[in-house]
Amino acid sequence: MAYDNVLLEEVEAGVWRLTVNRPKSLNALNSATLEEIGAAATEVGRNPGARVLLVTGSGEKAFVAGADISEMQAFTADEGHRFSERGMRAFRTLETLPIPVIAVVRGYCLGGGLELAMACDWLLAGESAALGQPEVTLGVTPGFGGSQRLPRRIGTAMAMELILTGRRIDAAEALRLGLVNHVHPDDRVMDEALVMARAIAARGSIAVRLAKSLVVRGQDLDLDNACALESQAFGLSFSTEDQKEGMAAFLARRPAAFKGR
Ligand code: CO8
After folding, report:
1. pLDDT digits (tens, 9 = 90+) for 180-209
2. Section 139-168 average pLDDT
3. Ligand 1 atom nearest residue 113's Cα
4. Residue in 91, 101, 97 with CA at minimum distance from that of residue 38
5. Are the folds of 6-201 and 205-252 the same?
6. Handedness of CA 118, 49, 193, 25 (dihedral sign)
7. What tens digit of pLDDT does each residue of 120-136 get?
8. Which residues lie closer than 8 Å to 46 by C-beta, 6 or more apart?
9. Would you say 147 and 118 are in contact if contact means Cβ atoms under 8 Å apart?
């Protein structure tokens, strides 16, 4: 499928990259871009060879500097509501992909940008990353899930502080808060993301998908049911060729050659 506002490419076998591509407006998310993010995520999700998705922004200055303020400025309440739902849908599509999704963040990652990044499984940051939920500085609330996903990531009190002040944090503080997993120099962060993606792509892909779904689904379950789900998935993995290969390779002291079945 052709896109106007995002780039979607398979950068190497099994590793896909979705780039929000509106650098003139610091990759601000307008309606068309939100739709394309959802469509691109769906396209990757349907590709049986996809193993990992990286999400990033084009240009040096920004991951995404938020929802598009020029589009939102004249919204009625109803239009605001529908715009929010559009973003929620797109980000949920991304969030529920069965493969790992990693946000690679350089520069501004604000408002809808941070909400997009938090719809990914984890974040890697360049040293220039500046993250925040500045919506209250514009007289609105977060609208693409920030009020829900930020407290789940960093705890209620700190999320409350960031959302209610609109304060921006740098990469080092984001690392301390557990909002980003690792910080790298800007010119290295994409390479580091690719190293990580390559490593994941070389694992047993069924096991990776099952493990991701356990973490995601287990979070909303009580511990007994979540652990029961893990036991089922563990059992299921013994029905795969990858399990036979992985354990045989370990015992033979050779690298495993997984086939994803
Ligand atoms: N929307 C539209 N255009 C933007 C945005 C944005 N969010 N951010 C930057 N731009 C544009 C600027 O207007 C400018 O365009 P032009 O060159 O045509 O004047 C261009 O990008 C470059 O920006 P600046 O000149 O401002 O660059 P600076 O380096 O001086 O500043 C900043 C960079 C600090 C990132 C600054 O641009 C800024 O503060 N941007 C807005 C950040 C922000 O508040 N983001 C949150 C938006 S609200 C939001 O995301 C809510 C999500 C949920 C909405 C659901 C709703 C219903």
Report:
1. 999 999 999 999 999 999 999 999 999 999
2. 98
3. 50
4. 91
5. no
6. negative
7. 999 999 999 999 999 99
8. none
9. no
For residue 169, what are the β-bridge partners? 131
Question: Two tokens at 135?
Answer: 């919506």
Work out the average pLDDT over 66-71.
97
67: DSSP letter:
B
Instruction: Enumerate the domain spans of the chain.
Output: 6-201, 205-252
Measured in degrees and rounded to the nearest 5, phi and psi for residue 146 equal: -60, -35
β-strands 52-57, 15-20: how paired? Answer: parallel
Question: In the chain, which residue ranges form alpha helices assigned H by DSSP?
Answer: 31-46, 69-72, 77-95, 112-118, 146-154, 156-165, 171-177, 186-201, 205-218, 223-237, 241-251
Question: What is the domain class of 205-252 according to CATH?
Answer: mainly alpha
- Annotation says 135 is catalytic: yes
pLDDT given at position 80: 98
241 is an active site residue = no
Ligand 1 is surrounded, with C-beta below 6 A, by: 25-26, 28, 65-70, 72, 80, 83-84, 87, 108, 110-112, 134-135, 138, 142-144
pTM of the model: 0.97
| Catalytic choice (127, 135, 241, 245) | 135
Tell which residue, 86, 6, 83, has the closest CA to residue 43: 6
At 98, the amino acid letter reads P
6-201 under CATH 3.90.226.10, yes or no: yes
Of residues 10, 85, 115, 192, which has the active-site annotation?
115
